[in-house]
Amino acid sequence: xxxxxxxxxxxxxxxxxxxxxxxxxxxxxxxxxxxxxxxxxxxxxxxxxxxxxxxxxxxxxxxxxxxxxxxxxxxxxxxxxxxxxxxxxxxxxxxxxxxxxxxxxxxxxxxxxxxxxxxxxxxxxxxxxxxxxxxxxxxxxxxxxxxxxxxxxxxxxxxxxxxxxxxxxxxxxxxxxxxxxxxxxxxxxxxxxxxxxxxxxxxxxxxxxxxxxxxxxxxxxxxxx
Length: 225
Prior knowledge:
The chain has about 220 residues and is an alpha/beta fold. The longest helix is centred in the last third of the chain and has 15 residues. The chain is globular, with a radius of gyration of 18 Å.
């Protein structure tokens, strides 16, 4: 059972989210909060990762906004997944949220099925990225600027991967967790973790977010293999 804390200052929104999640048999809304400090207090009271699997957090929260709460949670409970929720366009806030450590960003107008899928993905340790968010992330990387030599290194890094490493690379870059990859490829989790470490080294990336951005660039420059 995925135990969720909902943080949103509007009761009607919290009730709507609870109704959506109630239709998922594997999701349970364990607690709710209407302000930033209340979110932090609830997380602490529930024991962080020991009592929760996910925080579903609105950006526009009173007293402490969602971005500030996200940063605090990353310091105090680094293993607790956070899925950001907002009415703001993804291109405005998604990249910032993910850079701050969120496992995903979802607009409140999202389809209920997408909401449940995002909760499951992020709670499992994956990263939920919509097409709009992926576009925003790619644009952010492009704006940072990279030389032609660096762009060539992107392709060279992928070409250095073995067939199995490439399989793991594609799954990691689309938000699959180590456990999910192990189950799909029939590999032990520690073996997948070893492949992940090699992939990060060969591609010059530091984490799964950078790897997802790397994959976005690679998919436009080389064919699937």
